[in-house]
Design a protein that fits this description.
This protein is of the alpha/beta class and 218 residues long. Helix content is 31%, strand content 23%. A hairpin with a 4-residue loop joins strand 6 and strand 7. The longest helix has 16 residues. Bound molecules: S-adenosylmethionine.
Length: 218
């Protein structure tokens, strides 16, 4: 039997207990602004959870675009499905899968995607490099790949470090993983933002032609 995670046990409470509005919304907003997605874009959301990125993405892509959300937790996906249904979004596809083993997973007919995003999810994965490579491989040449994740706050915000560590520990993420550091070697035209005292790091890069795989993950 698989070990329960915070995302199998507390999916229904996630939006309430995740410090979304005071802290973490700022990261997803910054990333989606930097991605500058045109209307009609098809977007892959890795570790989409309950779909907190969806409304912000929908404002950019409109009904002609689509969101394909991938998450390992069926319970989180159920919340994402409820969100999409109650908002009337018919352009959301949800896939239950491990983002570090997407090789044989059918991500639907929008592969290669116009863009990919992962917010607060890669630092939960022991093999996050594999998930990052899968995001890049599933995105077309020139498409935007965005990662939002956490580190210890810096400068005057450093005094919030124990709270940041606690939030990461409760969520099961490794605050020292720093998955965005692998992006400059893999992507072009990197854009950077840092919010909430440096606790939230945002990176958006563009897929170079040699690495776009049109859905061939490895
Ligand atoms: C902290 S939540 C973030 C959810 C969402 N991206 C957000 O910004 O609110 C992390 C999510 O990553 C998912 N996750 C963790 N490991 C995963 C994996 N190997 N493959 C796919 N999803 C995974 C969890 O189930 C959870 O929904």
């Amino acid at each position: 039997m698989k070990k329960p995670t915070p995302y199998t046990i507390s999916a229904r409470m996630y939006d309430v207990i995740s410090f979304e509005w005071p802290i973490y919304r700022a990261g997803r907003t910054a990333a989606i602004d930097l991605m500058a997605l045109p209307a009609g874009s098809h977007v892959l959301d890795i570790g989409c959870g309950t779909g907190l990125n969806f409304a912000l993405l929908q404002r950019r892509i409109g009904p002609a675009g689509s969101i394909t959300g991938v998450d390992a937790s069926p319970q989180m996906l159920e919340q994402a499905r409820r969100r999409a249904t109650s908002a009337g979004w018919e352009n959301v596809n949800l896939v239950a899968a491990d983002a570090t083993a997407l090789g044989s997973v059918d991500l639907g007919h929008h592969v290669p995607f116009d863009a990919a995003i992962s917010t607060y999810a890669l630092s939960l994965m022991a093999r996050w490099e594999v998930a990052l490579d899968a995001m890049i491989s599933a995105t077309r040449t020139g498409g935007a790949v965005a990662v939002v994740d956490m580190q210890k706050p810096v400068g005057r915000a450093e005094l919030w470090t124990p709270l940041a560590r606690l939030a990461c520990r409760l969520g099961g993420s490794d605050i020292d993983a720093h998955p965005w550091t692998a992006m400059p070697a893999r992507l072009d035209a990197m854009k950077t933002a840092s919010v909430r005292g440096g606790h939230i790091q945002v990176r958006v890069g563009s897929v170079p032609s040699a690495t776009a795989g049109g859905g061939h993950f490895f």
